[in-house]
Amino acid sequence: MLPTRRADLEEFAASVKKAVPRDLDDLYVERVNEVRWRLRGTLAASQHTLTREGAAVRRGGRLSSADGLDGAVIASLLEVPRRGLADLDAPELPSAPTLDEVVAALGVADVDLRWRGVWSAVVRDGAVAEGGKPALLEIVHPDGLRQLTVWPPAPDLEVLPPASEAAAPRPGRTTVLFAPAAAAVLLHELFGHPLEADSLLRGASPWAGKFGQRVTPLALDLDDDPGAALPGAYVADDEGSPAGVRALLRAGELVGAIADRSAAPALGAAPGNARRATCHAPPRPRLSNLVVTAGGAEPPRAEARLEVTSAYSGTVEPRSGTLLLSVRSAWHLRGGERKGPAGAFTLSASVGAAAAGLVAAGGLARASAAPGWCGKNGETLPTGAVAPWLLVAGLEVR
Amino acid sequence: MSRPPALDAALEAAQRARARCEAFARSSETWHLRRDASGCWETRDAREIGIACRVASPSGNAFAVASGGSARYGSNAVRAALESVLPGDDPLPPASELGTTPIPPVPAPSSDEARRAFVEALAGAVDAVRPPVALVELRLLEGRATSWIATSDGFTATQEAGAASVELLLAPGEGPWRLTHASFVTLADADPAHLAEQACAAALLAPRGGSPRRHLCDVLLAPAVAAPLVAALARHLVATPPDGAPHASKRVKVSPVWELTDERPGPDGMLPLSWDGEGLPARRITLLSHGRLRERLASWADVQRTRVAAGGAVRRSLRDEPGAGPANLVVRAAAPLSEQELLAALDEGVYLACPAGAPRVDEHTGAFSLRCAAVGIHRGRAATAHPLVELRGSLPRLLAGLAAAGDRAERFSLECAVTTPSLLVRRLEIA
Predict the structure, then answer these.
(1) Which residues contact B248 (CB under 8 A, 6 or more apart)?
(2) CA B12 to the chain's CA centroid
């Protein structure tokens, strides 16, 4: 958690209320520090530092935003005189780690690294809610794979090895075993985005109208948990609503959605998942960290023909509900034994078929540095996951 | 827009530290309009301003960025840079190399009323298209930016840029939703009826059908599909590729059909520039012509290592250090073909009509993949529809395999501006 001067923030919030800005819904303020390193071996070939401050005001359905946190900037956004506003004394962010600390913690070489510390707060009705977002560390591999973890990272964080240059597996339908890092991407696409309120309400989600139905043969429990110590964590969302655990699946049945203030009543869901990519983007209902509580026994290897160890990304086509996963690294399996590496390929299925093919989970559910940065409509946010090994039948190799 | 105080504060802070400094500031205003199927509006306006500083001192050089335009942001950026100096050569071009090139004036941005009227006209034009295609969402983005560069050697320059982009998310009667994208120098250049007709035609092209078998075939890339691949190709044609990536050598096989230039000063292309990302005068850079790689894009630091011509630097965003890269790409053809002639030349293969997302490009190997809506072509005629295929290939294959280009170019605002017609490419993989 980042240090804040609570009394100063409350004084600022009270002064905003006293200034009586016309039709104000909320004021969002943020401060971001970033350090980027490009490594040659384990030495820095370059180091860049970035600080960003900005604010945004919502009023009557319009979002106005500006860079800087000077009094003049905020007064201009609020359309009130500068004189009555208290200074916003945003807290200092913690210092970035040194490159030596990062390299020692992760054991990486020949990658790009990006550390990011962020502070944000929402002022609404004279009260202030701080975001409480964690510092993050991103690893960008030479082939474009991006891993994202909280900083400092968990001691058992796995930095993925370089991708295999082996040939892609033959096209066709098959049964696939997903390692936790790949299962994290699968669950993110299969249940995370399609259960976001905007997708559900405009009919883009294949899960629209299916609440209360069992959609996986596996008795899977899945939550969205912004309280987990993962990249998508926060204490209050970007509308100032307190964070809470949202149950999405219980024993394979769809039970909940991911909502912000405006969409929550229509879905009978609780708000608390409004997230902004930057101060210039509006808050939208977005998932945070997906956490699976299944698992336990050994990974179900024997039935699988492919073991997917990492994925670049995934996507679900709106309405058609076609799931596509870009696999980065995998193994051919025979009788549960690895028989050789497989190169990059694409897995596809309809969302319904992929969920219906989700037949088993096993192994310890664990956090991995995936899915990481998640883009939707050009707005990118950090996300995390805790996932076990998953066995999925009926996926198509393309 | 007036020169931000951050710029002079940065130069003063660098002078106090006896460091050479290049301060770059950008101030932009963007206006977003989003209209959904029910006619609900979302409006946004953003004022972004920031400063990026490169400093060079006897102990090395560094780069830092701060958002905000007041003086403290300029001095903060220089202080952050000086705290992260790494050993290395001075990357800053000498004052004698810096300068400007005249460019066409930037049209004034539209008014709020004009933007709203355009969105309503476009939504109405989509409603009028037959067979019907439902409008899920319409997004309009218009922006205008002013950039300043000032160096401790006394050079100073400014330039303006502006553009508008329109995205339509469409739901045909059956099949997946389609997102189409078009960009314009000014909104006044956009014809709502033509835009609606073109976007709906793309949305209706491949509503249902299976996946093709994985195979190598000839492909015809519509401009919207060609544009991101042309941008990726130009990124590959730099003097100093990313660490470990192969160099695009002068002996690389290039199809004689390629005529690719970076039209930095305009007037062609969508985003003309007066100076490059480091303050060198903008110039026309011919990348591919007459079956040969003519020039590679180079920053000033690249020039010191490779002896190629400078002037090819860009800033991909305020937060990125200037580096070699494309800015305002234009693809032409010596013997352009009409769409019908292109289909006839394709004969057997796949027409890729509409991208579904951005391409994934491995900058080191040049391998790329891009998902698209597609139509299988048999004897020059549409034979099968494929709502979603994956195009796979490599940038060297794209360089060598171009067989023909169309006669109607379209403009796109991607990480750089791209103006390209349809492209016919031999032997890429479809799955």
Answers:
(1) B236, B237, B238, B241, B293, B296, B399
(2) 34
Considering only CA atoms, which of A97, A77, A93 is closest in space to residue A85? A77
Q: What mean pLDDT is predicted for residues B196-206?
A: 94
Residue B238 reports pLDDT greater than 90: yes
**pLDDT computed for residue A293 by the predictor:** 82
Six token digits for residue B383: 């034979």
The proportion of chain A whose per-residue pLDDT surpasses 90, expressed as a percent, equals: 86
Q: For strands B360-361 and B367-378, give the pairing.
A: antiparallel
Q: Could you give the C-alpha distances from B292 to B259, B284, B395, B425, B426, in angstroms and in order? A: 9, 17, 15, 17, 18
A328-377 pLDDT, tens digit each: 999 999 999 999 999 999 999 999 999 999 999 999 899 999 999 999 98
Question: Given this model, what pLDDT does residue A3 score?
Answer: 42
Beta bridge mates, A34 = A50, A116
- The per-residue pLDDT for B247 is 61
For residue B210, how many other CB atoms are within 10 A of its CB?
10
- Nearest Cα of chain A lies from the Cα of B281 at a distance, in angstroms, of 26
Q: Is B215 on the interface with A (CB under 8 A)?
A: no
Q: B357 CB near a chain A CB, below 8 Å? A: yes
d(CA B78, CA B265): 30
Would you give the end-to-end CA distance of chain B in angstroms?
50
Residue A218 near residue A344, CB atoms below 8 Å:
no
CB-based contact A322 B244, cutoff 8 Å: no
Q: Judge whether B355 is closer than 8 Å to chain A, CB to CB.
A: no
- Among candidates A201, A192, A167, which has minimal Cα distance to A248? A192
- Check CB contact under 8 Å for A63 and B43: yes
- Quote the minimal CA–CA distance from B407 to chain A in Å: 31
| Per-residue pLDDT band at A239 (split at 50, 70, 90) | very high
SS3 for B78?
helix
CB A77 within 8 A of CB A55: yes
Pairing of strands A24-40, B423-430: unpaired
Check if B135 contacts A (Cβ < 8 Å): no
Contacts of B176 in chain A (CB under 8 A): 317-320, 322
Across the interface, whether the CB atoms of B49 and A67 are under 8 A apart is answered: yes
> Is the confidence at residue B39, as pLDDT, over 60?
yes
User: Which pLDDT band holds residue A295 (cuts at 50, 70, 90)?
Assistant: low
Render the burial of A58-95: b for 16+ CB within 10 Å, e for the rest: bbeeebbbbbbbbeebbbbbbebeeeebbebebbebee
Query: Which of B55, B84, B316 to mutate to probe the A interface, most A CBs <10 Å?
Result: B84
What ipTM, to 2 d.p.?
0.90
Q: Mutate which of B44, B78, B177, B181 to disrupt the A interface (most A C-beta within 10 Å)?
A: B44
pLDDT, one tens digit per residue, over A227-238 is 999 999 999 999
Q: Determine whether the interchain pair A68/B69 forms a contact, defined as Cβ–Cβ distance below 8 Å.
A: yes
Distance from C-alpha of A106 to C-alpha of A84, rounded to nearest angstrom: 49
Give residue-wise pLDDT tens across range B244-298: 566 666 678 999 999 999 999 999 999 999 999 999 999 999 999 999 999 999 9
